Amino acid sequence: DESSIDSLDYEVIENYAYRKEQAQRGKLYVGYYVMVKWFFALLIGIGTGLAAVFINLSVENFAGWKFALTFAIIQKSYVAGFLVYVLINLVLVFSSVYIVTQFAPAAAGSGIPEIKGYLNGVDMPGILLFRTLIGKIFGSIGSVGGGLALGKEGPLVHTGACIASLLGQGGSSKYHLRSRWLQIFHSDRDRRDLVTCGCAAGVSAAFRAPVGGVLFALEEVTSWWKSQLMWRVFFTSAIVAVVVRTAMGWCKSGKCGHFGSGGFIIWDISDGQEDYSFEEFLPMAVIGVIGGLLGALFNQLTFYIAYWRRNYLHKNGNRVKIIEACLISLITSIISFGLPLLRNCSPCPEANSDSGIECPRPPGMYGNYVNFYCSKDKEYNDLATIFFNTQDDAIRNLFSAKTIHEYSAQSLLTFLVMFYSLAVVTFGTAVPAGQFVPGIMIGSTYGRLVGMFVVKVYKKLNIEEGTYALLGAASFLGGSMRMTVSLCVIMVEITNNLKLLPLIMLVLLISKAVGDAFNEGLYEEQARLRSIPLLESRPKYQMRKMTAKEASGKRVISFPRVVKVADVVSILRSNNHNGFPVIDHARNGETLVIGLMLRSHLLVLLQSKVDFQHSPLPCDPKGSRSIRHTISEFVKPASSKGLSIHDIRLSSDDLEMYIDLALFLNPSPYIVPEDMSLTKVYNLFRQLGLRHIFVVPRPSRVIGLITRKDLLIEE
Amino acid sequence: DESSIDSLDYEVIENYAYRKEQAQRGKLYVGYYVMVKWFFALLIGIGTGLAAVFINLSVENFAGWKFALTFAIIQKSYVAGFLVYVLINLVLVFSSVYIVTQFAPAAAGSGIPEIKGYLNGVDMPGILLFRTLIGKIFGSIGSVGGGLALGKEGPLVHTGACIASLLGQGGSSKYHLRSRWLQIFHSDRDRRDLVTCGCAAGVSAAFRAPVGGVLFALEEVTSWWKSQLMWRVFFTSAIVAVVVRTAMGWCKSGKCGHFGSGGFIIWDISDGQEDYSFEEFLPMAVIGVIGGLLGALFNQLTFYIAYWRRNYLHKNGNRVKIIEACLISLITSIISFGLPLLRNCSPCPEANSDSGIECPRPPGMYGNYVNFYCSKDKEYNDLATIFFNTQDDAIRNLFSAKTIHEYSAQSLLTFLVMFYSLAVVTFGTAVPAGQFVPGIMIGSTYGRLVGMFVVKVYKKLNIEEGTYALLGAASFLGGSMRMTVSLCVIMVEITNNLKLLPLIMLVLLISKAVGDAFNEGLYEEQARLRSIPLLESRPKYQMRKMTAKEASGKRVISFPRVVKVADVVSILRSNNHNGFPVIDHARNGETLVIGLMLRSHLLVLLQSKVDFQHSPLPCDPKGSRSIRHTISEFVKPASSKGLSIHDIRLSSDDLEMYIDLALFLNPSPYIVPEDMSLTKVYNLFRQLGLRHIFVVPRPSRVIGLITRKDLLIEE
Ligand SMILES: Nc1ncnc2c1ncn2[C@@H]1O[C@H](COP(=O)(O)OP(=O)(O)OP(=O)(O)O)[C@@H](O)[C@H]1O
Ligand SMILES: Nc1ncnc2c1ncn2[C@@H]1O[C@H](COP(=O)(O)OP(=O)(O)OP(=O)(O)O)[C@@H](O)[C@H]1O
Ligand SMILES: [Mg+2]
Ligand SMILES: [Mg+2]
Questions:
Q1: Which of B498, B529, B560 is the last residue of a domain?
Q2: Domain count of the fold of chain A
Q3: A38 domain residue, yes or no
Q4: How far apart are the two ends of chain B, measured CA to CA in Å?
């Protein structure tokens, strides 16, 4: 399984074909190229923005309509209402898991670990396909609309990345949506940059948090970062924000049903607490610690369960996956409907004209104080307010200010335990699933719980429970995903309360530190589970004591410059390596490493056959023979594994011929001397995004020395 | 001049001393090291926060007291008021320029280009000294308090960097403030990370914008970036925010005079415009274009003037610098006092109880509608409102909502032209000077001007002129400094209006694009002027066609492994190079490059003499002879150029002895084959932060191959 994962090539292969193309294309082409990049950034922004609007619109309408219907029916019969509620959820979840299992298996889960892997240099065919995109969009409508304990944010990131990748390869060839005109990005490097834009666009669209999106892409998903890229990512994010905003403005007058009722800021608490005092630092630290602990626990539990699912349960085929998802949907429906039933209603607080919050909530509206299975009119069910509600509304209610004492500690605790368990169990089912919103739900519940105690203890202060709910949400996300700056900005952008920024920062720092003491972040854990070989930015400690030679593969398989076709075939069959040194014999009998030949390029040569020659002598590179290939022939499709040696059919005549590799190899791969410490090799490999490094003997002489001054060339 | 600039060494020199130290110190030491780094991050945060509070407190009190006094006096006599005003400004500016010229020449200017150079790998002794820190703090109090057209933000970044660097080297040796206990950071790399924290702390303190600070450090000043560093920078920023907030809370009750009257958010416009419509995109684009043009013009003009100053005016000594600064102070005072005098007063608008803004401003208060040289009581002078005011208040007035028609187009234009000219002329004088606040002043003036027209044309919409002032400010900064994400976040954090985020993003994108069409960003221009050889992140276009060999220095000066002391001295005298290959002769007569010797290390060896030996034979590295040096002896002081060959005194006996360099060299510098394209070499050099790269012949064989799998070592 692991050997099937290949790496991406972020290096520019400077072979003759490339050099020729470079020579033909002047500065103008560079300008054109840059323009296309920006144009694509624009398209990614628009595409992801529209996809997000579509998903949100569908989810909010499905969910809104579901709750409206259920509420209408329970006026007459709770049993009928319950059945309808369960059924709708079941249908939605079933459609989601059906789409995913039958049509787009790569659309399951959040997709962020895979994208992270892709941007770290790991190639996993399938994650960026057109069908994955479709599966992701419709699957997440079903799973989120169906009321499972998961969110749509992760899937939106994946959606953005898919859109970006499809644009980058000029459409989907399988579905005949391909346009030659768009195919100008030939290297993994350019695709990587587009996918980075796509990730940012996804977060930007999901949370309507453009700066948060940029930072998320930079801090959490990408492994390489350039300031030019930052600017383009920023542009994409801004476009997404404008698109989503425009769509919401257009929907304002009720044209889109339930969509967009919450305003552009998802959970606006700008009218909440503005100030904090020193006494509050203690409960905040407590929240940070709880967040770290619960977050780390969440990572651990989901890791175990996902491990078990992967290795045992899901081995039994798609039917099991479907049954599992439906079962979880059933359980979720029963709990979210049943538990509020068992809870006694509380009397409404005295009407407060200041806050403008009605109790109980008028039918057909959103907000606090849900009347559910209450005997009297002026009562509300606090558990139903958060449990029997869409997630967005539940979070809004938990964050809400001026609703002190709305929830009882018992309800919050019940909800916390039940929802935490549901989130853990739901994670890893075969539906598109994000962990942001469930994390916010869990975090804000215990945050509000702590807030209740703070309000009780520090009576005199102007404290809002909602503030603590926000801090709790930040702490849980920090403890689980271990992001810092991006999470902080996202939290501020979704709540529109800048004044709490220093608090959010401190809580995040604490929860991340606590979480890091136990395990890795959620995405890293999940990447490990899926055996995505991520390279961290920091070299491991024991690398200091190892040398490059010790780490490298020992018996190097290499090619001579002019090689018999039969030999090529047999060598390529004998191993799975993707890169081979090419060794030339100089006239005086000495050998010389002249470059690196990629398996994929060799396969292209074998398939096209035009470069076969009868003579075993090298041809003159500058001679009459022109280069018969353009760069684009060598481009590996992003959506598949590309050619395999087993696809190649050669006649026995062909096998007797020769190829001169000199024209097609990468003449200058990066090299390191054999006794360089592995730390340094690691830095080279990781920071430059390489795929192969040659370990060579110490050189015999130094031809020249390059310092800063040599690189200060004026344009 | 240029040859005197050396580079920093971000590479770990893995010589024997280092390896021994590593072997002795286990994982525990790594933990200790990390802890100290965090502790230092904390100290940097506290230090910079306190410095910022001190500067702000002093500036606001000086300025506040100055205007209060002047206003008190002009009740009786305008002439006397004018004289007092001029005099106070003159004294403050004089003290600033005196401190800078006599005591801390490196404290002049904003310091950001220098810090940027430092973090790019350019060593400039003097910029991070203790005396620079002191000069910067007191100098900027004088220059900003003295009413010059400059800000205190750039200097605060420099202040933060100085604090960080001083901590990193364990204090200042010159002033006996050094503590051995703190001296555990021996490499330029660790110091670089601390300085990055310091920069973020500076911005965070200047604008009370913690996230903006982090992003500023990442986007604008650092050249390398790791996610671990991001987290530490984030922590520092959070600490700064808490420190500043605490200080402001403590000052709230008026204990600190005029300080902190504005609240934590400097220019809060959260009650301003919340929504925007499509029609507004056109004026916004116009503002973006104006910003790009004026910003690029600003860069160009300041470049020319600074060039002239540097090469002609300031060559004449300190007295000229002092006279120049005082003259500019005089002109500034005359213009800011005189122009409002010439302006007719306008009648106050009808009282609006909603906005709570009084007209005219009551004496001794801050706010809009300044009554200055008006004949009637119910009148105000719109030019004085922005010109005869502290910069913070002027900006607040320009940004203010609910004050439509406060300013006449004529006044805004007058102010724009005058202030722009003053800012251009003031830039480059020998006082600490930031360009953020002047940029905001200029930008918000033309922004408000555009806003006035918009309000006039689109009558029906709910448009605030203040919103356009904000966009104008963003556009000018974007057009001049060419930052994107960080500027955007800073603008949001200083105004607390998240809803305008997408607009700010678009305006910034436009103004940066327009500005980039003309010249480089302000800091890059200034770095070029000071001949700081910055390496951009992107390789130059023509590097694609060059090879490493073509770029490198041709005749390499190298050392044999065992070298005569006299030869060392003569070679070191004969050139200025800082790194030398060391070549060993194997027994079979072949040569072997065994490493890179740094000039600074050689000088340490020459000075200490303990490693001299009589025999010209190499000693056994694993033999009895122990290493007589600890790493710390090789550490170059951050604050000076270090040893020079001319400081070394050797007897003739010493000169006849030998040194075996094998123990002291860096055994594995990065190497590139001679025909690698310069683009790739550039990427290697730039991304890894190197100082020397060896260009070597093509290797004769490949010992091993390193791929991703070889680097996936579990801890
Ligand atoms: N040409 C080669 N000759 C000998 N060993 C090799 C060669 N290429 C790779 N190896 C070694 O084989 C092991 C597996 O590497 P693998 O074959 O998967 O590399 P690859 O397929 O070329 O690159 P990747 O899998 O990252 O795309 C590694 O330890 C590597 O050092
Ligand atoms: N040992 C050397 N032998 C020959 N040429 C060298 C040597 N070191 C540097 N050069 C060349 O001399 C020129 C000036 O480099 P310089 O001497 O300033 O490098 P340096 O001082 O070692 O590094 P830096 O100035 O970046 O600290 C460059 O073109 C470089 O290639
Ligand atoms: Mg492989
Ligand atoms: Mg030099």
A1: B529
A2: 3
A3: no
A4: 48
User: Do A359 and A460 sit in the same domain of this protein?
Assistant: yes
Asked if A674 lies within 8 A of B245 by C-beta distance, the reply is no
When the pLDDT of each residue in chain B is averaged and rounded to a whole number, the result is 87
User: With an 8 Å Cβ cutoff, are B708 and A27 in contact?
Assistant: no
B228/A219 Cβ within 8 A: no
- Does B8 fall in a domain? no
Rounded Cα–Cα distance for residues A183 and A185 (Å): 6
Q: What is the mean pLDDT of residues A193-199?
A: 94
User: Can the peptide bond before residue A113 be classed as cis, meaning omega within 30 degrees of 0?
Assistant: no
For B217, residues 6+ apart whose C-beta sits below 8 A from its C-beta are B196, B197, B199, B200, B203, B233
pLDDT tens for B643-668 read 788 888 889 999 999 999 988 899 98
CATH number at residue A660: 3.10.580.10
Q: Which of B480, B503, B529 is the last residue of a domain?
A: B529
Pair B284, B180 in one domain: no
Distance B201 CA to ligand 2 centre (A): 35
Of how many residues is chain B composed? 715
Residue B355: pLDDT over 70: no
- Residue A269 in domain: no
Residue from A471, A498, A676, A687 to probe the interface with B (highest B Cβ count within 10 Å):
A498
Helix or strand holding residue B326 (H, E): helix B318-342
**Distance of alpha carbon B575 from alpha carbon B591, whole angstroms:** 24
A406 and A309 within one domain: yes
Domain limits at A68?
Answer: 53-251
Work out which ligand 2 atom sits closest to the CA atom of A710. Answer: 29
Q: Which two tokens stand for residue A406?
A: 């709305």
| Spatial distance between the Cα atoms of B681 and B684, rounded to a whole number of angstroms | 5
CB of B147 shorter than 6 A to ligand 2: no
* A160 vs A147: CA distance, rounded Å: 23
Residues with CB under 6 Å of ligand 1 are A 6-7, 552-553, 555-557, 576-580, 691; B 705-710
Confidence of residue B412 (pLDDT cuts 50, 70, 90): very high
Assembly ipTM: 0.91
Q: Are residues B109 and B233 in the same domain?
A: yes
Q: Which residues surround ligand 4, an ion (CB under 5 A)?
A: B 6
SS (H, E, C) A527-589: HHHCCCCCCCCCCCHHHHHCEHHHHCECCCCCEECEEEHHHHHHHHHHCCCCEEEEEEECCCC
Helix, coil or strand: residue A256? coil
Site from B5, B24, B227, B709 to mutate, A interface, most A CB atoms within 10 angstroms: B227
A578 contacts in chain B (CB < 8 Å): 707
B585: phi then psi, degrees, rounded to nearest 5 = -105, 115
Residue A29 falls within a domain, yes or no?
Answer: no
Instruction: Name the token pair of B25.
Output: 């110190």
Q: Which of B405, B428, B667, B424 is nearest to B530 (CA)?
A: B428
A308 and A197 in a common domain:
no
Whole-number pLDDT of residue B627: 61
* Nearest beta carbon to residue B691 from set A278, A558, A707: A707
Tell me whether residues B704 and A548 touch, CB distance under 8 A.
Answer: yes
Shared domain for B555 and B608, answered yes or no, is: yes
| A154 & A223 share domain | yes
Q: pLDDT digits over B482-533, tens only?
A: 988 899 989 988 888 888 888 898 899 999 999 999 999 999 999 999 889 9
Chain B neighbors of A702, CB-CB under 8 A = 556, 558, 581, 583, 593, 694-696
CA of A641 to the centre of ligand 1 (A): 17
| Ligand 2 lined by A709 (C-beta under 6 Å) | yes
CATH number reported for the structural domain that contains residue B57 in this entry: 1.10.3080.10
Report chain B's C-alpha Rg in angstroms: 29
Answer yes or no: is the C-beta of A707 below 6 A from any ligand 2 atom. Answer: yes
CA of A519 to the centre of ligand 1 (A): 30
